């Protein structure tokens, strides 16, 4: 039996897209007048320098460019500009752990501090604009911090789903030639209390010549082996580090992140997402599809290991100054009442 739930009249009236007619109107304009449609849509984010061309498509050559010549920084759009507009004390991220009694909140100002410190820590390890950084973690706050820290300094993050094996991790690191791996000691998810994240990482990096450093988040406190010449605890890496890190000026078509396909239909393919077009789309669709309005607390149940998590846990919500929820566990643990 299928139940259909219709929105209340009040909800429909106040929605960004209150009717199918309105949806058709927006869609029609995007098709018939794409230059002006996307130029107006892109105004929702901050540009250091406006673009020269909205779009440049060549389907024969396979070249697709958005907002060519434009300059911006994704991290600045997700954090700094909100603080500059007086919203630094508003909650950016609510993290709820696998244990219902564990939770943390980060204001936009606190998030900027943590992101800037880790960004500077990455720079101290030799990470430069264009370098790739692999992130292999469960749904913990440091994952979002690391994503934004990479975006801040122009490093290209490659998040690998925390349930993948060491072989899958190794292959993705080698394909994108990552310089740094960020992981955690062990993970928890539902009834799984000792997911061997660091062990998997150690097994992977035995055959990843591009990795110079491994940064490890102490999440559970479980004992793990640490290679003194390669491994660094996250808390030690950021201890005493300057909390000011100027955002790198990025071209609209500069890479923001690489995210690999699952590999269910063959060798995983690294899909490269560039900065300006992606951030515009993530911000726009987060507001329209989920009918986000200022003050809403927004929860996307996806994992950051997939594109849904990138777009609708980090980049879309934070670009829109939302309060976004990160959930480490599963909805049926410790029971279905959660």
TrEMBL record:
Signal sequence extent: none
Limits of the AMP-dependent synthetase/ligase domain: 85-332
PROSITE patterns associated with the record: AMP_BINDING (PS00455)
Domain Acetyl-coenzyme A synthetase N-terminal: from-to ranges: 23-78
Pfam families: ACAS_N, AMP-binding
GO cellular component, one term: cytosol
GO aspect biological process, one term: acetyl-CoA biosynthetic process
Protein name per the record: AMP-dependent synthetase/ligase domain-containing protein
């Amino acid at each position: 039996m299928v139940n259909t739930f219709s929105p209340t009249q009040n909800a429909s009236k106040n929605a960004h897209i209150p009717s199918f007619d309105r949806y058709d109107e927006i869609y029609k304009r995007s098709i018939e007048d794409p230059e002006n449609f996307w130029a107006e849509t892109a105004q929702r984010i901050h540009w250091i320098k406006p673009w020269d061309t909205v779009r440049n498509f060549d389907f024969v050559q396979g070249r697709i460019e958005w907002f060519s010549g434009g300059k911006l920084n994704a991290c600045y759009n997700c954090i700094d500009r909100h603080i500059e507009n007086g919203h630094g004390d508003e909650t950016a991220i609510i993290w709820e752990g696998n244990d219902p009694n564990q939770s943390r909140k980060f204001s936009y100002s606190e998030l900027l501090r943590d992101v800037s410190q880790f960004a500077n820590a990455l720079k101290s390890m030799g990470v430069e604009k264009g370098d790739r950084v692999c992130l292999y973690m469960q749904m913990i706050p440091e994952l979002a911090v690391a994503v934004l820290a990479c975006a801040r300094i122009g490093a290209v993050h490659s998040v690998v789903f925390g349930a993948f094996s060491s072989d899958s991790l190794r292959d993705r690191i080698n394909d994108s030639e990552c310089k740094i791996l960020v992981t955690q000691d062990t993970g928890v998810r539902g009834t799984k209390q000792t997911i061997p994240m660091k062990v998997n990482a150690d097994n992977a990096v035995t055959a990843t010549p591009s990795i110079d450093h491994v940064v490890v988040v102490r999440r559970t406190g479980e004992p793990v082996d640490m290679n003194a010449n390669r491994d660094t605890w996250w808390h030690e890496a950021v201890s005493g580090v300057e909390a000011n890190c100027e955002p790198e000026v990025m071209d609209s078509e500069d890479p923001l992140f690489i995210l690999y396909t699952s590999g269910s239909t063959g060798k995983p393919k690294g899909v490269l997402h560039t900065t300006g077009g992606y951030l515009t789309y993530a911000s726009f669709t987060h507001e329209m599809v989920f009918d986000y309005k200022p003050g809403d607390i927004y929860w996307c149940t996806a994992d950051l290991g997939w594109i849904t998590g990138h777009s609708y846990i980090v980049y879309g919500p934070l670009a829109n100054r939302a309060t976004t929820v990160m959930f480490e566990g599963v909805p049926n643990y410790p029971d279905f009442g959660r």
